[in-house]
Amino acid sequence: MKIGIPREIYEGEKRVAIVPKMATQLLKEGHEVFIEANAGEGAYFTDIEYDRIGAIIVENAQLLYSEVDVIMKVQPPQREEVEMMRDSSIYIGFLSSVLDDEFLNLINKKSITSFAMEFIPRISRSQSMDALSSMASIAGYRAVLIAAQHLGKFFPLMMTAAGTIPPAKVLVVGAGVAGLQSIATARRLGARVEAFDTRPAVREQVESLGAQFIEMELVADAETATGYAKEMTEEFMKKEREIIGERAAQNHVVITTAQLIGKKAPTLITEEMVERMQEGSVIIDLAAEQGGNCEITEPGKNICRHGVTICGVLNLPSTLPIDASAMYSRNITQFFKHLYNGENRKLDFEDKITKSSCVTHNGEIVNDYVRNAIRKGANT
Ligand code: NAD
């Protein structure tokens, strides 16, 4: 197949969907790889490297899109990108944030077969394709480094001739993939860490990383069948905010990562709670993209309120573009191999990974989740 890698045009995006090492793998499988000039520049992969391994450098996006059967991207395509895609071509990349009626009509009119990386089911068999986890772990790591940069204190215990300085205290709320990586990174930097999550299953993982799990009466059915957190009752959230508020005032850094799939992020920190925190504290709100876990977070901005710095961080994986591209590239290559490895490179819709991740095919929405979401949207 002819595989095309365009340059990402989303503002500030530095990742590239396929790095030279993975392009080599695709070439070995008998595919042709076309890459737009300078597509790897933001992640420091040069055209010379791609050229050396046998990829074809294409001067501009228009030429690239007109040449290939498959487009591999990081950021969801913008309208102008879809317009450049060939009829009946294949799109693989993140997608969910652009899936509305208008977008779906556009790709269906062109009969584009589209796959959303974020819909790959998180089962053992698909671990090597799980871009959500790869990118979340980068975000969790980066969040701690940003916190350390803003905090006017050391993270580790320092015993110096000028006195002993106790370690920084870090609170992580939401111990999914990002939260667990934040815990591990903050521990490596020597901080004292405590964490909380509504899913009782994560207690053991938090403790195994050397952090303390915050005690709270947990609800037994806090998880959906697919392992995601359920939306909690207002009564539970009130109690949780009380406990988080108390703990936040004792910590120097708070990293929030709590998300609910397909919904706005839960509000865990109110302005009144920020007011009670110590002057000089830092909040890193990893849920800023989904509205934020802190009610005064401003997405994309660092603000200071009541002596507390609140960072509404966005697209952290792009701030570590070399490794983020390498990880994403491996995920998308494995996924592509899985999708088209059968005889005649035919899709197998009986397969759970293919079925869950395919959004449109032959001019129709084939994904139940997307179909239901669109139907609900149309009714409200
Ligand atoms: P996420 O990004 O959807 O959410 C982050 C965390 O916030 C989750 O741990 C969630 O429980 C927590 N949260 C939600 N509401 C909260 C609240 N009110 N207070 C505190 N915490 C709250 O999560 P994720 O990192 O994408 O992980 C989601 C699930 O997917 C987990 O069960 C994880 O173990 C699972 N997973 C499985 C695999 C695999 O099997 N291959 C890989 C990765 C993740």
Counted up, domains total 2
CATH-defined topology of the largest domain: Rossmann fold
Q: How far do the termini sit from each other?
A: 42 Å
Percent of residues in beta strands: 15-25%
Task: Describe the largest sheet.
Answer: 8 strands, mixed
Per CATH, the class of the largest domain reads Alpha Beta
Would you give an account of this structure?
By secondary structure, the protein is α/β, with parallel strands linked by helices. It contains 13 helices and 17 strands. The strands form 3 sheets. An 8-stranded mixed sheet has the order 3-2-1-4-5-6-16-17, with helices on both faces. The protein has a 7-stranded mixed sheet with strand order 11-10-9-12-13-15-14, sandwiched between helices.
Write the layout of secondary structure elements.
Blueprint: E1 2-5, H1 20-28, E2 32-36, H2 47-53, E3 56-58, H3 61-67, E4 70-72, H4 79-84, E5 90-93, H5 101-109, E6 113-116, H6 131-150, E7 158-160, E8 163-165, E9 169-173, H7 177-188, E10 192-196, H8 203-208, E11 212-213, H9 234-248, E12 253-256, H10 271-275, E13 282-285, E14 302-305, E15 308-311, H11 321-339, H12 352-357, E16 358-361, E17 364-365, H13 368-379
Parallel strand pairs: 1-2, 1-4, 2-3, 4-5, 5-6, 9-10, 9-12, 10-11, 12-13, 13-15
Antiparallel strand pairs: 6-16, 7-8, 14-15, 16-17
Helix pairs in contact: 1-11, 6-7, 6-11
Bound molecules: nicotinamide-adenine-dinucleotide (NAD).
